[in-house]
Amino acid sequence: MEVSSAVASEFWARLTWSKALFGLLVINVAWTASLFICPYLVPSGSFANQVGGANVIDHENIWATYSIYPRIIYTIGDAQCHQLFYRSFWLNGNQMPIDERMTSMYVFANLGVLAAIFAQPSTSTGQVMLNALPRFLSRRLARLGTERAGGAIVVLGLTPMAIDGFTQLFRVNNYESTPLARVVTGALAGFVGGLLVAAMLVTIRQFSIEMQALQARHAMMSASQR
After folding, report:
1. Residue 70: enclosing H or E segment and its boundaries?
2. DSSP helix/strand/coil, 90
3. Which of 188-192, 201-205, 217-221 has the lowest mean pLDDT?
4. pTM for the full predicted model
5. Which of 14, 29, 73, 172 is the most exposed place for a label (fewest CB within 10 A)?
6. pLDDT (0 to 100) of residue 72
């Protein structure tokens, strides 16, 4: 019992090591959960077989019929996603607030944030990203140098989505991405995006800790010389 309590305490301490980082995780988890919850809070079939445009609210007339919570979530989803019915997951007879790729991105962004939270802290964002990866992968990428390795992680994570998305956008050879391709490329991009943002917050927090320690040592040295 004492062992499990100590483990839980250490786990919680690590989660809350940076308030900004913990806040990021809580907000993204809440948003991700809302994507799956809200289709069940509105009438079945009330949002079905719809299409729209990105960065514009197309279906305000539908959202106006919803209660406040699903209305907010669906409106935010509408503002950032095309909400194409043939590229969306369906729950309770309704399209989810955002499409398959973006849903996958948010789900896996949580894993990226968690990976950064439990990685060895550093004042280098690239080093934090390396520390968050499995050893066999981080060792190989480390040969590029810390900052280049961080850049390589971002490129490797975003490139598959860019290729799949732009090939589909420009209808190269009438290409239409598959649900599996959208989920996989979204997962890679989401994980790397979450990892990058969280790694930057880790860097800021670690820099602050090291500066505080340096100031404390300087104060002790000044006091001892008096």
Report:
1. helix 68-80
2. strand
3. 217-221
4. 0.92
5. 172
6. 97
